Amino acid sequence: MERKRILIATKIPQQIQDLRAALLANGYEVKVVDNGFVALQLSRDFRPHLILAEVELPKIDGHHLYREIKAQSATQHIPFFLLSKHRSVEERVHSMNLGVDDYINIPFDVNELLLRFEIVLKEIARFESTAASVSKGFAGKLSDMNVLEVLQTLHIAKKSAIIKIQNDDREGLIFFKDGEFIDASLEQLDAPSALFRMITWAEGTFRVELRAVDQPRIVQNATEEIIQKGLLFKDRWEQLSRMLPPLPAPVKIGANLEKQKFTEEEKEILSHITADARLIDLVERSRFNDLKALQIAAGLFTRGALVEKPAAEVQENGKPVNGRSNHHHANLANLIVNFLEQKVGSPNNGHAERRRSERRRMERRMRGRRWSDLSAQQNRVYLNQSELLMIREKLLEKRSQEEDDNFGMLY
What we know:
Blueprint: E1 5-9, H1 17-25, E2 29-33, H2 36-45, E3 50-54, H3 62-71, E4 80-84, H4 89-98, E5 102-105, H5 110-128, E6 137-141, H6 147-156, E7 161-167, E8 170-177, E9 180-185, H7 191-199, E10 205-210, H8 223-241, E11 251-253, H9 264-270, H10 279-285, H11 290-303, E12 306-308, E13 315-316, E14 319-320, H12 327-343, H13 349-366, H14 372-377, E15 382-383, H15 385-410
Parallel strand pairs: 1-2, 1-3, 3-4, 4-5, 6-15
Antiparallel strand pairs: 6-10, 7-8, 7-10, 8-9, 11-12, 13-14
């Protein structure tokens, strides 16, 4: 299961240390920044599931940050909590009128705030699990329709859409406006690199939401040119992949390296070898584009400088199959987790009961919260290959009919 990510923007990071520790102990991934400008940048790169921002922030204040977050298609669905020392009714009313999801006073109770986060995120998850109408989009497996086929369909049909691509625990976004590719987001990559990495994903799922897109155009190249380059990229990627072990395979440096000479590019690839490195890790961690990195790796494999790690050296469930265990490390990890839980106040029986009571009270209070905009955006109806092809044909037929109607109006 993907860890939930929380982005916190506060001008005094020390004041949320206990909250950060509690979030980490409860399985969240947390980033803390001290100004609104960095928070705005991370809202896309970090892809948080929830944002907590102080009103009085340097560079961009909390209210301005909220408006910027909600103005972008890629981030407008993120729940937004405001944090402030002001206790006036006017300040709270102003913030809630903006549309923020909750308003938190400083000082706050850590356990109560954790509960508020949990309730909001669970409510969003419930909407995400509800199947939306196929008329507003479609979804499927990449093995049935790959990323390039999805792009070609939207381009020819002149559609605006946000495409969500998922591969294991990685998730990327592609933005189309009137049939033109305008932007893509994946980890810390720029838009073209993000798109081309997703093109290499043969397994996973996609979800297309047909909707108006107000995302600014980041990529200026013609979409036909990008798709053509993508086809060549994918073809070459598959050729190289056939020469190599599976991309998730663990790898290590081969023997007799002292007899070989390496280029600077080859040294760069080899420098990313670690105890648990996989072939795909070497490709994605290098400073080269993915195709070039894979090509260099293929050359190293051919020469025996890089080899697949034997099964006897591969760890399974934290224990190597050769019999040596990581019992000490597992115990150390448990001690750290237990310490963190105690530090943030592991509940005794009485405290646990109070938390359950508080949970029920807050769930009743927040049950009326509506996420209608998010609900309309979600689509969990996954289609098979024949159904995807039918949708593709329908989109193209509709585009062709629109062009015929426009032609008739001219003559």
